[in-house]
Amino acid sequence: MKTSNSSEKKVELLASHYQSTFELTHQMWQLRNRKFIILLITMGFATLLTFATPETNSLLVDIIAKVLNVSDPARVAELRGSFPFGLIQSILLVAILYLMVNLHHHSLTVSRNYRYLGELEKEIREILEIGKGKVSFTREGSFYWENRGEILGFVKWIYIVLLGVLLVLFLAGKLTDDFQQGSILFSIVDSAIGLIIIVFYFYYSRSAVRLDRPSESVRSAKK
């Protein structure tokens, strides 16, 4: 009886830990998705600004003029001629670095946590002596991988390609603009920041691909 009570207490603690971990992981998943959308919007706007389309520049100046309550047409025209678009681009570059680092961190945490939940389910099933034919405590493990739609495997590639295209366009345009204007300091700093962004993008992409597969224990359980 003592052993039974001990096992029940252990299962209760594991189940509670499982539930709290799942809730935390779900929150991290939502936060990661928001970070991804914010990063895409920021990179899209930065790319438009980098290629210096007149409409984009005018729109940005108009927004700033409205925020600063500047209504005189002459002042607005002066603001358009002297506005430091290059500095704004550099600020956006730093913002993209921050968002890229956070996206990698949250994405890696979510992927690891789901794998951890799958392993935790296995431990709970062993303690409860649940047979292979039962689906209890397999939600994030074998049940998920056996019932996941095939098209979901391509989602990560869509994210990786979309993010990569915007990243290449922005960095290429920004660094080209720096070198054309002869700004050595900006060129060096922006190149260093751009390199760090690429490194974090690479690790984000690699972890998204490597961790989007069943763990060894799940694969062995299918056999």
Q: How is the topology of this model organized?
A:
Elements: H1 2-50, H2 54-67, H3 73-82, H4 85-128, H5 142-147, H6 152-180, H7 184-210, H8 216-222
Describe this structure in words.
- By secondary structure, this protein is an all-alpha fold.
- It has helices at 2-50, 54-67, 73-82, 85-128, 142-147, 152-180, 184-210, 216-222.
- Helix 1 (2-50) packs antiparallel against helix 4 and helix 4 (85-128) packs parallel to helix 7.
For the record, give the distance between the C-alpha atoms at the N and C termini, rounded to a whole number.
35 Å
Overall spatial form: elongated
Question: What's the number of extended β-strand segments?
Answer: 0
The residue fraction in helices comes out at over 70%
Low-confidence stretches: none
Radius of gyration: 25 Å
Helices and strands, in order, run as: HHHHHHHH
Largest sheet: none
Q: How much of the polypeptide forms β-strand, as a percent range?
A: under 5%
Output the number of helix runs: 8
What structural class results from the helix and strand content? Answer: mainly alpha
Average pLDDT score: 82
Keywords:
223 residues; mainly alpha; elongated
Summarize the structure.
This protein is mostly helical and 223 residues long. The protein has eight helices and no strands. The protein starts with a helix and ends with a helix.
